Amino acid sequence: MTKATQSLLEHANKDTVVLTRLGKPVAALVPVDPDQWEDWVVSTHPDFIEIIKRSETRYQAEGGISMDEIRRKYGLKRKPVRKAG
Fold first, then answer.
1. How many domains in the chain?
2. Which end of the chain is more exposed for a tag (fewer CB within 10 A), N or C?
3. Taking 50 as the threshold, does the pLDDT of residue 1 lie above it?
């Protein structure tokens, strides 16, 4: 690993690094929280994105189900509302 690459990685571990070509941004290195890595991998996977698009299309065409309907369908009780303070 070259010194430049090592230095770049050290900076990218702490903050976003924007790479430029001829003064224009072309890429960014963004620090990744290890606890959020799996979320990022799943949420950017083409299959997951397709599922979300299909779900949004169906929701727009057919509408959704209210929480009250879900509770009735599955026999769930409403949780008591906790008061702040």
1. 2
2. C
3. no
**69 and 41 within one domain:** yes
Name residues whose C-beta falls within 8 Å of residue 11's C-beta, 6 or more positions apart in sequence. Answer: 17
CA 70 centroid distance within chain: 26
Cα–Cα distance between 63 and 65 in angstroms, integer? 7
Contacting residues for 25 by C-beta, under 8 A, at least 6 apart: 18, 19
Q: Does some domain include residue 24?
A: yes
Rg of the chain (C-alpha set): 23
Find the domain containing 54 and state its range.
Answer: 33-73
Structure tokens at 29: 């290195």
Closest CA to 11 of 3, 36, 41: 3
